[in-house]
Amino acid sequence: MLQIFSKDGSFIALFAINNHAHQNISKKQSKVEAFYEFMQGDSTFYSLIENFASLRDFVSLERMLDRMKREQRVFTEKIFIVIFKAYGKAHLPDKAVNLFNRMVEEFNCRQSIRSFNSVLNVLIQECCFDQALLFYSTGIGKGISPNFLTFNLIIKAMCKMGLVDRAISTFREMSYKDCTPDVFTYSTLMDGLCKEGRIDEAISLLDEMQIEGCFPNPVTYNVLINGLCQRGDLARASKLVDNMFLKGCVPNEVTYNTLIHGLCLKGKLEKAVSLLEKMLSSKCVPNDVTYGTLINGLVKQGKTADGVRVLVFMEEKGYRPNEFVYSALFSGLFKEGNAEDAMKLWEEMVEKGLRPNVVVYSALIDGLCQAGKPDDAKDILSEMVTKGCTPNAYTYSSLMRGFFKTGKFLKAILVWKDMESNGCTPNKVCYSVLLQGLCDYGKLKEGLMVWKHMLGRGCKPDVVAYSSLIHGFCNAGLVDDGLRLLNEMLCQDADSQPDVVTYNILFEGLCKLNNISRAIDLLNSMLDRGCDPDLITCNIFLRIFQEKLSPQQDGSDFLDGLVLQLCKKQRFVAASLIVEVMLQKYISPKASTWGRIVKELCKPKKVEATIEKCRSKLFN
Where are the PPR repeats (predicted)? Predict the structure, then answer.
């Protein structure tokens, strides 16, 4: 038996020599010595570093670096690049930066653009964009000359941060640094511009890149097509697809998925289905995203039955629907009043061996609660827990809402207690549901306790929570307290700003106190803040004029004035809604009001949109 060890005693190799091989020892000795020398060489250390890096054994990596330093080994840049990549995979960007900064002084290894880009890439992959910009500027200040990859990385970081103008300036610097932008550079910048809504600038870059001899790939086109679809400009998106074919760039599944999603957003389901057929004919295979997008679009248009048929087709093609497809179908069927079909679909899903997750369970529980069957939903929740699927805050809030809605106050409170005892931390939606339920039942004192509990846990109330408590105050005749809460809302962020529901609660409360002038002042304040009245607002004020004033008024002058106010503020959609309410109440608008609204609604583009809407309703 022959064992070979390194100088520090670590095992290197083991050779077992049988009795029949003694005569070959001398021949093999030279090979062993060569092997020994190899294992002791710098390349061995590199191999060990690679191994430790792949295992993410950073303690051993540091020891190996220390040993190499003690033995005065030569450190090459590729050693550090391997370690930087390992730090990136382990989500340790600060470690990568620290090691980069130690390279010269501690390890006598010169930093080049390769190691610099490696660390920069780690920072960007970990979304440390501020740190990436600082690292970039520091490196440039120390004399590191960026290459096209450096520019690509830093432009990506700037676009992710929304610093698109700065990204454009950096892009323009590339020519001064003898760096030619590639397709990745252009695509990244286009994506940043599209996300800022600057679609025209992004499209102009498409022309520029082709003039410069850089030809777009499917990714480039997909970025622009997605931007146009998000803006609803499907005509230009279609032209870009035609342009793709002319340039010999074949659309891929991402292109088709993006267009189908855009068509579904605009409610153009026939064209979406037609595009799916075109996709199949062009031998571009639809995936689960394609079918899921189409099903979701059908559900949103109230055509869930068609969505179920697409689900069947999808399964026939060998695709397994994900949880979002099933949850969308359950929600759609329940919303359309097809609780029986939803439960059949549930049974079919279970029979196929598909294991529902928290998203699917929550959609089913919410649907049953909307259908007025919270007890059935509670049974599903029990089954969910039994099968090892943990309910989340959304699941519990749906069940609480269902019990409150059907008048089962105590059962709703028990759900809240179960949620807390099961370790599920309530979020602002849960608090809002509980507050709304308590205040609807006149439990203002308990509602205030929940409010304090919510604030004490650092959970910020949303518009529903505020509106619920305001409703509780108004029901108790404490309208001034409700108005104080409204003023508090106005100082909050967007999620907590009052909506028309909040204002309607206060209008109703002021109406009960016969404080009509204050209600009208609040209405004017609401309009000034950009919040439009709805049917309920109109009904509240009509009741005020017809029941609270002496002599009684039909409210026609008030509604006419409201329409003109909205027109002056260029809010013609809201103004036309008020006119519609007037016609439903057999109140004739003044001739001047008619003229103002008709003139606005009969602008060519709006007429075309209305005709298209009517055509869609007639033929779909």
Answer: 147-181, 182-216, 217-251, 252-286, 287-321, 322-356, 357-391, 392-426, 427-461, 462-496, 499-533
